Amino acid sequence: MANIDLEEMSLADLKALQKKVTKAIEGFEERQKLQALAAVEAKAREMGFSLSELTGAPQGKAKRKPAAPKYRHPDDASITWTGKGRQPAWFKTAVTSGVSPDDLLV
Question: What is the DSSP-derived secondary structure letter of residue 105?
Fold first, then answer.
């Protein structure tokens, strides 16, 4: 490994070096985790199991199914809203013009 004289480096050079070192450490840790996981999976397969069978955890992320629509546009039934997140403009307009949210339910 090359000797680096930190005393001779500017602040910008030191910060750039710090970013590179942090990135190298994170990459190293990630590679170590992947190698460990591969070794454990191989050992489980060697013994006739899958890793998820041994840990009771599903492999991969569980997929969330889309939320069902709760409200429908008063003029165009193909436009819907689940009732979660920001209110769409058409919903706000309808409510401010006197339409009850209950009237917009699917």
Answer: B
Residue 72 φ/ψ, nearest 5 degrees: -125, 140
Q: What's the chain's average pLDDT?
A: 89
Domain of residue 90 covers 71-104
Q: Identify which of 87, 69, 65, 89 has the alpha carbon closest to the alpha carbon of residue 78.
A: 69
Q: Is the full-model pTM beyond 0.85? A: no
Cβ–Cβ < 8 Å for 104, 71: yes
Joined together, the tokens standing for residue 106 give 């699917």
Q: What's the total number of domains in the chain?
A: 2
Q: How big is the CA angle at 73 (ends 68 and 76), to the nearest 5 degrees? A: 110
